[in-house]
Amino acid sequence: MTPEEIMKAVLFFLTVAGAGWGIWWKIDGRVKESEKASESRIKAAEDKADKATSDLAAHKLHAAETFATKAGMQEQTAQLLRAIEGVGNRIDGLHERLDRAFERTTGRTTRG
Fold first, then answer.
1. Per-residue model confidence as pLDDT tens digits over 13-58
2. For the CA atoms of 43, 46, 48, 50, what is the dihedral angle to 10 degrees?
3. How does DSSP classify residue 67?
4. How many CA atoms lie within 13 A of 36 on its CB side?
């Protein structure tokens, strides 16, 4: 091989290597940019998840403090049923008293 041919071959390989290095440099730049963008998105998602977790915990606490429990509802239901039973007993007693009142009035005779 002549020095001219060797120089052409070396120049060809340098050109191919330079093109490969340039392509790799562009790909590496894009990868780094996407890593930075992904990191910021991940950080935003983590912050959002932390806020959602704290909001959920606050809501659970509010619900536990505010809304009725099953035992509380059973107690209130029992109180209402006792009150209704008491009203029913009074109505039954009133019925008996009215019967007695009518029995007394029908036992009297009027002279005329």
1. 999 999 999 999 999 999 999 999 999 999 999 999 999 999 999 9
2. -140
3. S
4. 5
DSSP 34: H
pTM above 0.70, yes or no: no
What backbone torsions phi and psi does residue 2 show, to the nearest 5 degrees?
A: -90, 155
Q: Would the pLDDT of 8 be above 70?
A: yes
Residue 91 has pLDDT above 60, yes or no: yes
DSSP state of 69: P
State the Cα–Cα distance between residues 65 and 11, nearest whole angstrom: 80
DSSP state of 60: H
How far from 42 is each of 5, 51, 52, CA to CA, in Å? 55, 14, 15
Read off the tokens for 109.
């005779």
